[in-house]
Specification:
It is found in: Membrane. This protein is mainly alpha-helical. It has 2 domains: 35 residues, no CATH class; 96 residues, no CATH class. The chain is built from 6 helices and no strands. Helix 3 crosses helix 6. The chain is globular, with a radius of gyration of 21 Å.
């Protein structure tokens, strides 16, 4: 690996004051981790959501409509919209009650560590499925 990738890992894992010192000194300093608090704005969240929806959605929607026809496509699109709205409603409701803002945290709170892992696996499989469909459609 190059020195730049090593330095990048150091910058992500270390407190601000020890970046360069740990890079030049012993690797034992690399074991330090810092936790980041969420400091995102509403605008950044909207941009991220829009990017995710438009990025994979635009490519997949045209392909789905060409294979299912207009009537079935509209029916499936409405079903997915209802399920997505309900999912977001549940996540926002749980965020208001107990302060949970992510599906993994919700899974951990409801079902323990296994719930967190299951939520992460489902999200990962969903993303892999989207990537596969987009690659296959192109």
């Amino acid at each position: 690996k190059s020195k730049d990738s090593f330095r990048f890992k150091c910058l992500l894992c270390l407190p601000k004051t020890n970046y360069i010192a740990a890079y030049r000194n012993s690797p034992s300093n690399l074991r330090k981790h810092i936790e980041f608090e969420g400091k995102t704005s509403f605008g950044m969240s909207v941009f991220n959501l829009s990017n995710a929806i438009m990025g994979s959605g635009i490519l997949g929607l045209s392909y789905a409509m060409s294979n299912t026809g207009i009537i079935m496509f509209l029916f499936l699109l409405i079903c997915i919209a209802i399920l997505s709205s309900y999912s977001i409603h549940l996540l926002l409701k749980s965020a208001g009650v107990v302060g949970i803002r992510a599906y993994e945290q919700l899974g951990k709170r409801a079902f323990g560590h296994l719930g967190k892992i299951l939520a992460a696996v489902v999200i990962t499989m969903h993303n892999i499925g989207e990537i596969t469909l987009i690659y296959w459609a192109i």
